[in-house]
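Protein: NADP-dependent oxidoreductase domain-containing protein
Species: Galdieria partita
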Amino acid sequence: MTDQLSSQVPPLAHYRLLGNSGLRVSPLCLGCMGYGKSWQDIMGEHVENEAILDTYVEAGGNFLDMANKYNEGETEEIIGEWMKKRGNRERMVIATKFSIGMRKNDPNAVGNHRKNMISAVKDSLKRLQTDYIDLLYVHFWDFTTPIEEVMSSFHDLISAGKVHYVAFSDTPAWVVAKANTIAQFRGWPHVAAYQGRYSLSDRTMERELIPMLRSEKIAHVPWGVLGQGKLTGKYQRGMQPKIRGGITQMTEKDFQLQDVVTDIAKQLNVSNSQIVLAWMLNHQPGTIPIVGCRTTAQLKEHIQALGIRLNSEQMKRLNDASAIELGFPHDFIGQGFKQNPIIKYRGNENIELDDVPLQ
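Structure follows.
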């Protein structure tokens, strides 16, 4: 463990800035997707919601993630009622999303256009029992709404005080980069955060999205950080269990990676899940993972991962076992100056350059 967990400061009170903003958020974001009864067939039953929220806040946590569509609106209602009872709205950083339709047979109740964004925010504010949203995400890119319309609508909501910060989820890197550039030149609010699927068992965000986030100074707030429980050790060879509604199944590569995770977990006397989370915190410093919990015990286990430091050998084993093909152009020019073989071609072998910008 490190001083971070042994100090007088609660573990989640070691705040970090959200991207290129001054907003302070906890190093772990609490995912609230399972709060409610409408999606129990997918998410399972969650009965410790308030205890988990209270434990999170007691540990210094302030960053909650949800969406208007989660449990058909129940999630926002539960969080709104909890904040009202605790009287802690101002302390919390509330992140929610829009894009997915909430009304049937209405073509304008889905997508990223101005009508749906403004309508969704109005409804979310009512469910959350508040007059502003700290961080509003485009839930997914709809491939139809002009980027200028999205960013100008964000600008209007921020100017009206209904939203404080702009964010994107599940959107191609080129869209986010273009949106940020448009905002910069129009004097509109920039993109503060991005959500995407990222874990030790799925590192494909490293191809385009993570380099873009670094270049644009956008906070990385990934979901699916435990890989749907694929590396916990509960799934063994010979079993092919459906994982979360049959979204994915274990492959031989997953089992080989799980073997490495299990071995390192035994070395450090911690759980597989803690190793998976610690890998992300060590591999991508500054990342703010979203963690979902069914029990307070699970939350405490996740928090303890903040104090796990993996040595270079352990990181290498995990990185090698989880490596992905980066594809073109990265397999041709690398992802940085020092990786680019063309720079040092024929007579330039001795070129060195320190402090190269991330882009």
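Remarks: Residues 325-359 form one domain.
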